[in-house]
Fold this protein.
Amino acid sequence: MNAETKDRTATVSQYTASDITVLEGLEPVRKRPGMYIGSTGPSGLHHLVWEIVDNGVDEAMAGYCTRIDVTLLADGGCRVIDNGRGIPIDEHPQYKGKSAAEVVYTVLHAGGKFGGGGYKVSGGLHGVGASVVNALSTRLLLEVDRGGKRHRMEFRDGGQPVGKLEVVGDAPRGRTGTSVSFWPDGSIFEETDFRAQTITERLQVYAFLNRNLEIRFKDERPGHDPEPQVFKYAGGIADYVRHLNATKEALFKRVAAYSVSEDTQEVEVALQWNTGYYESIHSFANGIATIEGGMHEDGFRQALTSVINKFAKSRNLVKEGADGLTGEDVREGLTAIVSVRLTEPQFEGQTKAKLGNTAMRSLVARATNEKLAEWLEENPKEGAQVVKKGLDAQRARLAAKQAKDLTRRKSALDGAGLPGKLYDCSSRNAHECELFIVEGNSAAGSAVKARDPRTQAVLPIRGKILNVEKARVDKMLKNAEIQALIMAIGAGLSEDFDLTKIRYGKVIILADADVDGSHIRTLLLTFFLRQMKPFVEAGHVYVAQPPLYSAEVGTSKVYLKDDSARARFLVEHPNYNKDFNRLKGLGEMDWSELKETTIDPDKRSLLQVTMEEASVADNICSILMGDDVEVRRHFIQTNAKDVRFLDI
Ligand code: 0RA
């Protein structure tokens, strides 16, 4: 979105300190941080960063800010500088003797976003704002350049002002802007270490969505990469689409992009197909990711199907009287960004990430019907490629339906319809049942000996399973390993997946800590994510690893998951002078060793390593839920540096 349109949509109507509405004090935030930032884990910690960066991005959306600098400071703080107008510093009419800036940072729900004036276009979802960050920090330093002066104010211990806002000198010539540095409170958060990659990924998306906004990131913490990263995209969301398709093979070079902008609402769309088989539509409302979709996405899908079918007919690319392409057919391999801006977004759905404004459906549909049709007329060769891909998808869909019907009938005839190599458990109560997926027969051998046969089942899979990212459904369904997985879990797949039919409450991918294990884990996660998404989202899919080391402490044996666990152990046991026993992979592990890796040996019999791993697994589940394609790629990079699985 360019500065002109921002100026118009975000009419700054003589904004004064009185526009800042006031709700309540800060204590509730420290009492129940989860209510304000979701959690006190890593997600909540990073929420603090988003809150502060959002304010700068709002200022950019309003057309006043062109650059934001985010720095992770050597002492654990985070600093965000923008070159916007600077937070207002005049006295707040309802709070005599307090500057508006102080009120914004010390009063809950204070901020332009909640008043009538100020920003017309802003998220609302992230609006809990600056005071929440202050409440959850041991220290916050605010500096405002405005009216030729530099102002400073400091807060300590969860938002207590240290003195008043004061002028500390002149602002650099002509400069306005805001700098906020904060130090998250270690007594609130489980951990206070920011993760650079989490931050840069989000900053990059902000930069894509705000064409030409320059966002810089620097990590000054010891031991981290000090190289600054710069995100600035002249192409906006078209660059975003290119970026998303960069690791894939694009169906053609061009990115289709169009926008329509009216008085108080606007839409921008960019799209390109790749030769893969999945759709990847990312939608946003006022810069906020609408993971659950909503009216803008509905309008886009609906119009896309219709536009492509019309184009196919008008160019005689489909046979007379043949079935039209379905939405699914035309979206195969589609990467698209749909970004809308509107004055009063209604966020609905479970996670408040679904756009409810019906006006957005017609706006996006209208824009797509008109502008995408034009684009196809101007790019008929690309249009024909899209239609051909849709027809291929249609054929595969029909073949897959036959294959599925066959599998369904087969499992009905086979009685239970369970795969031959499954070592099932005896309980039929899915809640207490766990399925361990292990690599190869020898690993299965150890696992079967160590398990509790009542509740723990083991399914060996052979070598690398099919990469479902690279195969169409019909081929996938013919794959023996995939068939075994589907049958064992017993709840179908893709649209037909029925969470109520699952045979296990937990599916645990148990793979070694080496590169092969990492590869297999990723292939399996890719399969679950693509074909049994609700299963992953409901938190049933876990990842476990047998420990890499054991150590002897007195007469007992301690298992250590990996090198960092070993390092932590050495900190806790500074006098430890024996060797560590390096365990082999699952396949070579003795079943008694496997049994000993139980967290609570009295209660459970097998592989309760998984319980230590559960946090890791939960993490992965929530990561996978967030933003599938992008995050999966990130998962792959962080966990298997040596292999680019999905691109093999
Ligand atoms: C309300 C009004 C004005 C600026 C801002 C808010 C503002 C807030 C933040 C928070 C971080 N950076 C920010 N930059 C600007 C402008 C009032 C005026 O100049 O008329």
Observations:
- Residues 17 and 92 are 5 Å apart (CA to CA).
- Residues 1-23, 111-128, 599-648 have pLDDT under 50 and may be disordered.
- The chain has four domains: 27-231, 237-397, 412-547+585-639, 549-582.
